[in-house]
Amino acid sequence: MATEADEYREWLPFLEEASRIVGAHLTEALSALGDPYLVRASQPDPPRIKPLQSIKRKAKRKRWTFEQTLERINDLVGYRLVCNNLEDAERAAELLRYRLGTKGIGVKRQDYVKRPKNTGYRAIHLDIQVAVSLDTETRIVNCEIQLRSLLQDGWARLSRADIYTAERSLPRGIVRSAKRLAELLSVADQIAQDIREEITRPRRGRRAATGAPLTAASAAFVFRRAFGQDPPEYLVQSVVNEYRDSQVRADAIDSALQNKALLSRLTEAYKRHFDWDPDSAQLFRWAVRAAARGTDAAKDVRVNN
């Protein structure tokens, strides 16, 4: 008669393959998350495959059979993404949901930011089911992607040993204090979001003289000419700072941005690599790179992301 350990060993190759499949989608989505000078997300730990003992504890608590637990548990394979702030976490969640949807993988979203858990825990969870086929057998593996801000992740790491695994036996005062800490960090997250909104405010531009080097005002002007809207402040400043010593000219960037054939080739290269179109910030950076270093440098999407 097969033991629980035997059943787990039979499932393990499917869990490992699901981990690989989801990991590939995460890598692609993170590469296209947004302008890397503003939007940041990282995967600080490798994916976690739920160990045998954790599954057994879950089965006992839920009064399920071991086989039922393997089929019902929603985080047999777990990923965690940590984003700079709330806006990045939201964007990453939507981008992942879109990408997984294009691959025929359904996503169920659980928003513990808008509706925190009783402990104070906040994050966005994406629950997905991955069909894994090995040899002649196919099994459905339930995976979970957790997306948190830096502050949410800090709270979760500090609280995990004390709150998640021993909540019922802790004094109420400790649980209350942990929840208060989560609420304070939530306020800090909102302040960080306010800062994000400030640095992304539109920057008005001004036309530069022919042959003049790039400035913040001229960068904003050529951006508006190309895309019909004022660029965010951070984009202008980061580009000017990056190419301060290159002597790149504003009119050279303008010419690159008006070169529809070049922009089309850049867009196609990006779509082949990531499956969706680049945004205006990325195209603008490519145009600056093309003006400063040549079009071949600009077309390497791996360098620009």
What would you note in describing this structure?
The protein has 305 residues and is α+β, with helices and mostly antiparallel strands. The protein has two domains: 4-195, Beta Polymerase, domain 2 (2-Layer Sandwich), CATH 3.30.460; 216-298, no CATH class. The protein is built from twelve helices and six strands. It has helices at residues 4-31, 52-62, 66-72, 86-102, 150-164, 172-199, 216-227, 233-242, 250-258, 260-274, 280-293, 295-298; strands at 41-42, 48-49, 77-83, 107-111, 124-134, 137-149. Strands 1, 2, 3, 4, 5 and 6 form a six-stranded mixed sheet that branches. A hairpin with a 2-residue loop joins β5 and β6. The longest helix is centred in the N-terminal third of the chain and has 28 residues, at 4-31. The chain is flat and about 80 Å long.
